[in-house]
Amino acid sequence: MSVAKLVYAVFILHLFNSFLYSCSSNDLSQIPKNFLTLAKREDFFNWMVGIRRRIHEHPELGYEEVETSKLVRTELGKMGVSYKYPVAVTGVIGYIGTGHAPFVALRADMDALPIQEMVEWEHKSKIPGKMHACGHDAHTTMLLGAAKLLKEHQEELQGTVVLVFQPAEEGGAGAKKIVEAGVLEKVDAIFGLHVSNLLGLGQLSSREGLLMAGSGRFKAKISGRGGHAALPQFAIDPVLAASNVIQSLQQLVSREADPLDSQVVTVAKFEGSDAFNVIPDSVTIGGTFRALSPRGLEQLKIRIEQVITTQASVSMCNATVDFLEDVNPPFPPTVNDKDLHLFYESISVDMLGTENYFETLPVMVSEDFSFYQEAMPGHFSFLGMQDKTHSPMANPHSPFFEVNEESLPYGASLLASLATRHLLESSSSPNKSNMKDEL
Ligand SMILES: *[C@@H]1O[C@H](CO)[C@@H](O)[C@H](O)[C@H]1NC(C)=O
Ligand SMILES: *[C@@H]1O[C@H](CO)[C@@H](O)[C@H](O)[C@H]1NC(C)=O
Ligand SMILES: [Zn+2]
Ligand SMILES: [Zn+2]
């Protein structure tokens, strides 16, 4: 923030003399701590825990978040928050504040995974084969928590907070559908977070620029000629062909990628014959590929197709490759806006101190949050959950994954602080020509 902005902001504070920033020195830097105190109140915490457990017991997969979406709308309704629904099938877009520019968006994902929960506890998933194993139940709850905090301090908002409850992050690119729905066109900045089992409770981590890889999926059918397993000379064996294909695919990263420009190719699916003594007609393989740049992703995609088809032909098989882009659009890399990152760091330090903010290296997991960042400046970060009673914690997508509910107040207050401060700092900018725009 420039000195001019700071002076203006302090001037605003004297005008409002509000709760959020009157607690100590009439200082914007108090907002995050004050929100955290509010979110840790016993009644507020218990309310969030109750919501998170209800969502956890009823996990729903991408674009099927019917009950979760209904719960979100019911809670927003109780708070008196207006919303748009349906957006992107099951998505909900809420609005708090003046209804005018500037606009800042906060995002949570609502979908679960096709995993059978293995954690035995009172609020275990009641849906066989489905589980909130990535913490999206916590993200949805944190955004509802932020909504409640923001609504309670609505008159202090210098603009409008747009709440994005999106479907289908785990494939299906719900974020892309939200962007395409056109509901975020006037948004100046969007923030999102993910719970992390690797960071301590109340610790935050992120970085400027590249944070997470881009990713795509592929599926290939390798066709030969089936036959008796004892008479290979009369068959064309697609199992061996597929095995050679997988070996060759592993050379793309080791031999063709720049060792300093990380990439991943994993074959995770292999479907052949059901019998021990039958060579199948065909084998289907499938997997994922990751890269840190759009160019790296495109290059991998071209080579994956070439390697599969030509290597299959070495074994006299034919192969077709499908990148499944209609159903699962490839995710671009997640890249944090530079100015938003500086802003984020100042909020995290104001809330939790410099000792609780950690700069991370980029990671090869991916996030469909990147679709927002293609359309507007965006920032994504990780929020720690580990404490003495919860460590070590299982990784996301594990059937043993657990959320430490003590993290809920941190997430809610971080999101509320990012939105409130972003609006205060952008509305204090001298350029107010678009202040009267309605969303
Ligand atoms: C591969 O495709 C060619 C051309 O369509 C066909 O002649 C051949 O029989 C196919 N081979 C196998 C093993 O399916
Ligand atoms: C002020 O905002 C208007 C409208 O968004 C934009 O066209 C203009 O470039 C901005 N001016 C400055 C100095 O940022
Ligand atoms: Zn996930
Ligand atoms: Zn996730």
TrEMBL record:
<dbReference type="InterPro" id="IPR011650">
    <property type="entry name" value="Peptidase_M20_dimer"/>
</dbReference>
<feature type="binding site">
    <location>
        <position position="397"/>
    </location>
    <ligand>
        <name>Mn(2+) 1</name>
    </ligand>
</feature>
<dbReference type="GO" id="GO:0010179">
    <property type="term" value="F:IAA-Ala conjugate hydrolase activity"/>
</dbReference>
<dbReference type="Pfam" id="PF01546">
    <property type="entry name" value="Peptidase_M20"/>
</dbReference>
<dbReference type="GO" id="GO:0005783">
    <property type="term" value="C:endoplasmic reticulum"/>
</dbReference>
<dbReference type="Pfam" id="PF07687">
    <property type="entry name" value="M20_dimer"/>
</dbReference>
<dbReference type="InterPro" id="IPR017439">
    <property type="entry name" value="Amidohydrolase"/>
</dbReference>
<feature type="binding site">
    <location>
        <position position="136"/>
    </location>
    <ligand>
        <name>Mn(2+) 2</name>
    </ligand>
</feature>
<feature type="signal peptide">
    <location>
        <begin position="1"/>
        <end position="25"/>
    </location>
</feature>
<feature type="domain" description="Peptidase M20 dimerisation">
    <location>
        <begin position="214"/>
        <end position="312"/>
    </location>
</feature>
<dbReference type="GO" id="GO:0009850">
    <property type="term" value="P:auxin metabolic process"/>
</dbReference>
<protein>
    <recommendedName>
        <fullName>Peptidase M20 dimerisation domain-containing protein</fullName>
    </recommendedName>
</protein>
<dbReference type="InterPro" id="IPR036264">
    <property type="entry name" value="Bact_exopeptidase_dim_dom"/>
</dbReference>
<dbReference type="GO" id="GO:0046872">
    <property type="term" value="F:metal ion binding"/>
</dbReference>
<keyword id="KW-0732">Signal</keyword>
<keyword id="KW-0479">Metal-binding</keyword>
<keyword id="KW-0464">Manganese</keyword>
<dbReference type="InterPro" id="IPR002933">
    <property type="entry name" value="Peptidase_M20"/>
</dbReference>
<dbReference type="InterPro" id="IPR044757">
    <property type="entry name" value="ILR1-like_Hyd"/>
</dbReference>
<feature type="binding site">
    <location>
        <position position="194"/>
    </location>
    <ligand>
        <name>Mn(2+) 2</name>
    </ligand>
</feature>
<feature type="binding site">
    <location>
        <position position="134"/>
    </location>
    <ligand>
        <name>Mn(2+) 2</name>
    </ligand>
</feature>
<keyword id="KW-0378">Hydrolase</keyword>
<feature type="binding site">
    <location>
        <position position="170"/>
    </location>
    <ligand>
        <name>Mn(2+) 2</name>
    </ligand>
</feature>
<comment type="similarity">
    <text>Belongs to the peptidase M20 family.</text>
</comment>
